[in-house]
């Protein structure tokens, strides 16, 4: 069975992210190695922790990424747990995305040299907290327990720090914002060019029609061909215009979101 402490954490995460998939007891492969997914007081498996009772309990859960639990959700959950000393007192370590945070190292973020756990958070509970059935306010209350937006951005991008006191994450955000602005400007320029091409084609057609009316040239075959080409180009220009308008809108939205993120990070 799942230790009560970790069952309450499971319930809290499911309450925060309905539909999330959470695994617990280890499979046959886990049984061959020491793991909190293995139940203690069980012959043939190697539990990472044990306690004084004789009840088989596993103390690890895997919170899987998916449509109901994104990578951003995962980092936000880790951030909230790390911000709450009461939550940390019930856990031994967290692993996710190639990183580990453990009680034995003061919950400092470190590179993990085992399975990178890129598709799930591994959370291990303390055997001493097995019977703790209290709630998990850090999970249940979400952002009310979380750090400031600037701290959250810094936490998410901690792995990008280069050790010189600068954080390339902010440079990346600035470059992305500039790229979004350039994309929006390019989209506007292309729309202007497309409109100019359409105006030029209309002017050429009007000139041919004028020549025909004056009797200076038999314009019927030319007009037929021009209209055929113009109709095709008109459809293409309409499609391009719609695509560029959508791209411009998306780029402007991205620019605005990045600008807001930068403003929060700098506040």
Task: Tell me what you see in this structure.
With 267 residues, this protein is α+β, with helices and mostly antiparallel strands. It is 52% helix and 9% strand. It has helices at 4-16, 28-31, 71-82, 85-88, 137-140, 149-156, 168-213, 220-266, and strands at residues 22-23, 60-64, 91-96, 99-102, 110-111, 120-125. Strands 1-2-6-3-4-5 form a six-stranded antiparallel sheet, covered by helices on one side. Strand 3 (91-96) and strand 4 form a beta hairpin. The radius of gyration is 30 Å and the shape is rod-shaped. The relative contact order is 0.10.
DSSP strand content: 5-15%
Strand order of the largest sheet: 1-2-6-3-4-5
C-alpha Rg (nearest Å): 30 Å
Number of strands: 6
N-to-C SSE series? HEHEHHEEEEHHHH
Broad structural category: alpha+beta
Helix content: 40-55%
How far apart are the first and last residues' alpha carbons, in Å?
47 Å
The helix tally amounts to 8
Q: Specify the biggest β-sheet.
A: 6 strands, antiparallel
Outline of the structure:
This protein has helices at residues 4-16, 28-31, 71-82, 85-88, 137-140, 149-156, 168-213, 220-266; strands at residues 22-23, 60-64, 91-96, 99-102, 110-111, 120-125. With 267 residues, it is α+β, with helices and mostly antiparallel strands.
Write the layout of secondary structure elements.
Blueprint: H1 4-16, E1 22-23, H2 28-31, E2 60-64, H3 71-82, H4 85-88, E3 91-96, E4 99-102, E5 110-111, E6 120-125, H5 137-140, H6 149-156, H7 168-213, H8 220-266
Antiparallel strand pairs: 1-2, 2-6, 3-4, 3-6, 4-5
